[in-house]
Request: fold
Amino acid sequence: MPSPQPVGEFDPAGLTGPAGDPALAAAVRRWMVHDPDPVTRAELAALVEAGDWAELGRRFAGRLHFGTAGLRAELGAGPLRMNRLVVRQAAAGLVRTLAAHGSASPLVVVGYDARHNSDVFARDTAGVVAAAGGRAVLFAGHGPTPLLAFAVRHLRADAGVMVTASHNPPADNGYKVYLADGAQIVPPIDAEIAARIADAAGAEEPVPVAPADHPAIGLLDPAVLDAYLEVLTGQLTTVASPATRTLRAAYTPLHGVGAELAGRAFAAAGFPPLHVVAAQADPDPDFPTVAFPNPEEPGALDLGLALAREVDADVLLANDPDADRLGVAIPVRASGDGAGWRALTGNEIGALLADHLLRRRAGGAQRLVVTTIVSSRLLRRIAAEHGVHYAETLTGFKWIVRPALDHPERTFVFGYEEALGYSVGPAVRDKDGIAAALVFAELVAELRAAGSSVPDRLEELARRHGLHATVGWSIRFAGQVGAGQAAAVMDRVRSAPPATLAGRRRLAAVDHATRPGVERTDALEWELEGDARIVFRPSGTEPKLKVYLELVHPAPAAQPFPAVEAAAAAELASVRAAIEALV
Reply:
């Protein structure tokens, strides 16, 4: 072990710790010796000098769980935070796993967004890869997650790492891992990597890291960006139409990294320049104008809506900070109120994109669309109408892309999850907010040229398949005990389910934690009388419980559509109130 390095006036060699807990003192002392970051070493030193062993105990109560896709947590010192030592150990676990699977000199693409320390974590990862005998291709600057997913396959890499916490709060960061197929990892490889991370963490010697100028570390060729943009524009079918050229789109990247590539994509496709929210255009890891940098969150689109009204836009498009999600708002005409705007739900965007792509993309019966157990079942009916394959998976794009990988004879057209994640075509095996924005703009342009609108298309879908009214919401829990509180609620709805809910009989239940023959997840699904469905699921990245509710209301041609919408909304509110009373 290297000799202890003093941190300011503090020497970890003399650390004794609280009475009766020498193991905690030893763990803190060992961490400070190995930690390469003077900032986080000083953070631990300050906690020790303040005698805050309760906080130190929380930070050293275990390690960040390396699950499917990777890591995500608050920045800070210790094994239960995101920091340079955790990242170096994670990178070591990845390259050792690649070596165990035959890649002794792996090629790893490393991308990063504009969050605090993302660039540092990415450079450390590249250094670990190079020191282990591999080659690293590092983003030349911050960029979006879908570009990383694309680059892995385009460069025929063995793996990819994206340093991002997506739409999490500013204090967080994360570490997503992809393999050579361009998809996020799934079991059992995640457990293999986790075991080798533990080996790296338990080693006496620190993880070797090559310097930034090591010859095995290169920068991403700009030609890869050009290839990505070519794929995006090649998926469109009406690029040259006059309607496309006159489309007015407002756009916000929510202080993230999407603006540059989105602007280039729209220009390459023949759209006029995007009207970008100036206050949110540049990357800013503090996200100063929004409470949460997530297009789903209340208030996140306020500045975008103000700009959309100002420029009389046809649509508002919003990416989250790493540009893998897409939020959309559209102008609507409310009687007596003039032009108003409303944000579409993730399920509405998903249905609109799927219907548009299946109308416009050839491929016959071998085409495939995919969604998740918590998303609307409207996609199933749209797929049946078009005579194409449909699959339903667990939540997350690591699962959404699997049906296409398992059935290469099928043509993947579209996949989505209700949390504003959409994948268009087979080139990017992850959600892609820029590609989805481009296709949605194409849809708006086509409808506009035909004298129609997005609300008109939504009504068409409801008339054919019933109005699939959905609502999702979260019950948030605070602090370190939050995950335990969410688990307690799940135990309660499993052990004491009601026979009826809002006057609807509970017809069946599917517990995805014990469901045989498929991958399992902590989710409970209830079928209710009258074509209604509820899913309860704890979040995998935040201390909260998610609830998803869907009911299908008939939309006969003889009934005015506003009346259909009002009736569906009333039923939705009634069932939601019953759920909230239950949990």
Observations:
- Residues 1-9 have pLDDT under 50 and may be disordered.
